[in-house]
Design a protein that fits this description.
The complex is a heterodimer. By secondary structure, chain A is of the alpha/beta class. Chain A has helices spanning 44-51, 81-87, 102-112, 118-131, 135-138, 151-163, 181-194, 207-213, 231-236, 241-247, and strands at 4-15, 18-29, 33-37, 61-69, 72-73, 88-91, 169-173, 199-203, 216-221, 224-230. By secondary structure, chain B is mostly helical. Chain B has a domain at 66-242: MetI-like (MetI-like fold, Orthogonal Bundle). Helix content of chain B is 76%, strand content 1%. Chain B has helices spanning 7-40, 46-50, 63-94, 99-113, 116-130, 137-161, 165-173, 178-207, 210-215, 233-242, 247-279; strands spanning 53-54, 59-60. Classes of the chains: A alpha/beta, B mainly alpha.
């Protein structure tokens, strides 16, 4: 792993007076799959939502410290939030297809950015569907409603939808928490394939998933970063006893 | 000693009572429609629909009142919908709950409870005399618009609020601006609800008498401009019946009125369910 693309230094985030993240310092490198594990309420999702500033939507949310993506401070006044969110595509825990056709779901980001050419959009949609191995399954019904797809297909649609933004990063917030093992496997395979082109940040409440796909893993607890290391090290010889307790299922 | 009623008997009794209550409601509804149709339909003919009233409405048809009704209703909806939907968007998407939104909401709810004749009087003073629009489609349309505004704001607000928060989040996360999120994601999903409010308001406008008679007047001539005075079907019905000019023609007008409201509702719901099937 060569180059650091995301750097958090003493980064905290508050909702009102309540700290959701406490002085997090970590680095994420280009083209790695970075896993984040931890029990509910440990600040994993908050961290992702700080990176694309989705927390801005919540009244009273306030960051502190530095959070940099490719050397630029996410919270500096000069940053374009719209561009930032295109740059860091995000997949949510529950697949949320917008109530429109499969085609329009994937073309959504490009349309919002002003792309009008039907030809270019069609090319983009096909390309993104192929990358998420969804093309074969839906190629003959692109105009039907995306809500008619199965849960697993919807989640891969959401993944394809952010690929259409041409992002540098893919952030996933417990993407397989509602899916069956086979759909989960398909998503994990897709992530490994995408690793060559993107940097992937995978928040998961399934520790085994992190063990399976992440190159490095961070363990969050109550808003604090307990430790971050190579995944095999975290799962074989964690340096903090709390990490050991969590991955061996003593709590969480 | 407590008398034991077997649960099944209790079930059956309650079921019958509820059935009876429903039956009464349906019966009243159908009785009114049936009665008006029985008295009115024999009068309705192509001649009745296409000729203007003569001798104060004793003879002739109701063509000019049909035109007046359509013009006035359209005008009211065209004025009130953008105002109402705009306010609803502002209240739901662009402000947080605070004393101001509560005052606005309270005000608009009070507005909804004001009897229509007060709106008529207000419209008469403001539009007819003060602003000098006279008895005209414009005065009537503006007054009706104010009258239906609270309904439109209320239903649009509820429709916009019921759009899942996740849709907004997804839209933002895909790099849309606030305005794009509102116009491309929130409004299309809220459209069925907004349309329902608009349809309710069309019904109210068509049936309105008190607010209209003061502001649009009761001229029997075919309106030619926004400044023409005009009579709507409901006003025509009221005057024919009140002054005892012709009960037959009054019921004929009523029949046409009911049929138009029914068909507008049916048409609107058909369009809406087609829209919903396509996207949901």
């Amino acid at each position: 792993m060569d180059k650091t693309v995301i750097r958090a230094k003493e980064f905290s985030h508050f909702f009102g007076a309540v700290p959701a993240l406490k002085k997090i310092s970590l680095e994420i490198c280009r083209n790695e799959i970075f896993g984040i594990i931890g029990p509910a309420g440990s600040g994993k999702s908050t961290f992702l939502r700080c990176l694309n500033r989705l927390n801005d939507l919540i009244p009273g949310s306030r960051p502190e410290g530095t959070l940099e993506v490719c050397g630029r401070d996410v919270y500096s006044p000069g940053i374009s939030v719209v561009e930032l969110r295109r740059w860091l595509g995000m997949v949510f825990a529950t697949p949320v297809p917008l109530p429109r056709s499969i085609f329009e779901n994937i073309a959504f980001g490009a349309r919002m950015a002003g792309e009008k050419s039907r030809g270019r959009l069609a090319e983009l949609v096909a390309d993104c569907l192929k990358k998420t191995a969804l093309w074969e399954e839906v190629m003959d019904r692109l105009e039907t409603s995306a809500l008619k797809l199965s849960g697993g297909q919807q989640q891969r649609l959401c993944l394809a939808r952010i690929l259409a933004l041409k992002p540098e990063f893919i952030m996933l917030d417990e993407p397989t928490s509602g899916l069956d093992p086979i759909s989960t496997m398909k998503i994990e395979e897709t992530l490994r394939r995408l690793q060559a082109e993107y940097t992937v940040i995978l928040v998961t409440n399934n520790t085994k998933q992190a063990a399976r796909v992440a190159d490095r893993t961070a363990f969050f607890l109550n808003g604090e970063l307990i430790e971050v290391d190579r995944t095999d090290k975290i799962f074989s010889a964690p340096s903090d006893s709390r990490t050991n307790d969590y991955i061996s299922g003593k709590f969480g | 000693m407590k008398i034991l009623i077997p649960p099944r008997t209790e079930q059956n009794v309650m079921r019958s009572v509820l059935w009876l209550l429903t039956a009464i409601t349906v019966f009243i509804l159908f009785f009114i429609i049936f009665y008006v149709m029985k008295r009115g339909l024999p009068v309705v003919s192509l001649q009745f629909l296409s000729s203007n009233p003569a001798e104060m409405g004793k003879a002739g048809g109701i063509f000019s009142t049909i035109v007046g009704t359509i013009a006035l209703t359209l005008l009211a909806i065209l004025i009130a919908t953008p105002l109402g939907v705009g306010s609803a968007i502002f209240l739901t998407e662009y402000t947080r709950e605070n004393w101001m939104t509560r005052v606005i909401r309270f005000g608009s709810e009070c507005l909804a409870g004001i009897p229509s004749i007060i709106f008529g009087l207000f419209g008469f003073i403001l539009f007819v005399t003060k602003l000098g629009f006279g008895w005209s489609l414009l005065s009537g349309g503006l007054t009706l618009a104010f009258m239906i505004l609270p309904t439109i704001i209320r239903t649009s607000e509820e429709a916009i609020r019921s759009v899942p928060y996740a849709y907004r989040e997804v839209s933002f996360s895909l790099g849309s601006t606030k305005w794009q999120t509102v116009t491309r994601v929130v409004l299309p999903s809220a459209l069925p609800g907004i349309a329902t409010g608009a349809i309710l308001s069309v019904g109210r406008s068509i049936g309105e008498t008190a607010a209209v008679i003061f502001t649009a007047g009761s001229s029997l001539h075919l309106p030619t401009s926004l400044f023409s005075s005009s009579r709507t079907m409901s006003v025509h019905f009221y005057i024919l019946a009140r002054e005892g000019i012709s009960m037959n023609n009054a019921y004929g007008t009523a029949a046409v009125l009911i049929i138009s409201i029914l068909s507008i509702n049916i048409l609107a719901y058909t369009l809406m369910s087609r829209f919903m099937r396509k996207y949901c």
